[in-house]
Amino acid sequence: MGTSAEEVYAAFLEKVKRTIYVDNLSPQVTEPVVRTAFNQFGYVKSVQFISIYLESKNAPQAALVEMENPKQASSIITEMGSYPFMILGMPRPIRASAARLEMFDDRPRKPGRKILCRWLDPKEPEFQEQRAEEEKLASQQSETLLAQYKKYDLLQAVFEDGSAKRLGRHYEMPVADA
User: Fold this and answer.
1) What is the CATH number that goes with domain 5-103?
2) What is the DSSP secondary-structure string of 5-50?
3) Relative to the CA of 151, which of 6, 26, 43, 74 has its CA 20 to 30 Å away?
4) Taking Cα atoms as reference points, which of 13, 72, 81 lies closest to residue 45?
């Protein structure tokens, strides 16, 4: 006999409660390493790395770590907020927080959820609220993009004026051209 949509969704919500989101992991960290590190808090049921497509392969990565129960997950979040966490022998400012529904690629559809579409008259207050919210989001995205461009320009200037090569020679590290 099949499982109802409500039961599937309830089981998914329980999974979310016992799962933590961990980020700023070293790119060299693998699933067995994460399992070993978190097994000291309790049994790790699964580890799922979250792909970050916009960053280079050397960028920190994130993972969803499902524990056996919500108490273990809560304990990890509290513990990692208080002490530096060691993975691969180096202290790293790894952050842990409770997982959220939207972090899971395999989340089931919420039972009874309906998507309604309708046209709004530009004079309706609801339309004005939605437009204001979208303009605020566009402004935030624009500011973030501008900040990223400034970082890029700063890094480019460091390479162009030779500072990077001088620092590389001083610390005996090779520096590639930008």
Assistant:
1) 3.30.70.330
2) HHHHHHHHHHHHHTEEEEEEE-TT--HHHHHHHHTTTS-EEEEEEE
3) 26
4) 72
What count of other Cβ atoms lies within 10 Å of the Cβ of residue 78? Answer: 11
Query: Residue 69: pLDDT band by 50, 70, 90 thresholds?
Result: very high
State the chain's maximal CA–CA distance in angstroms. 70
Q: Read off the pLDDT of residues 9-45 as tens digits, 9 standing for 90 and up.
A: 999 999 999 999 998 888 888 899 889 889 988 999 9
How far apart (Å, rounded) are the C-alpha atoms in residues 74 and 80? 10
pLDDT at 29: 85
Q: Parse the chain into domains and list their residue ranges.
A: 5-103, 125-170
The whole-number pLDDT of residue 16 equals: 96
Amino acid at 149: Y
What is the four-CA torsion angle of 151, 103, 45, 36, rounded to 10 degrees?
0
Long-range contacts of the stretch 13-18 (C-beta < 8 A, 24+): 13/101, 15/66, 15/104, 16/99, 16/100, 16/101, 16/104, 17/70, 17/73, 17/98, 18/45, 18/66, 18/67, 18/68, 18/69, 18/70, 18/72, 18/73
**Of the candidates 61, 83, 79, which has an alpha carbon nearest to the alpha carbon of residue 71?**
79
Band of the pLDDT at 58, cuts 50, 70, 90?
low
Q: What's the pTM?
A: 0.61
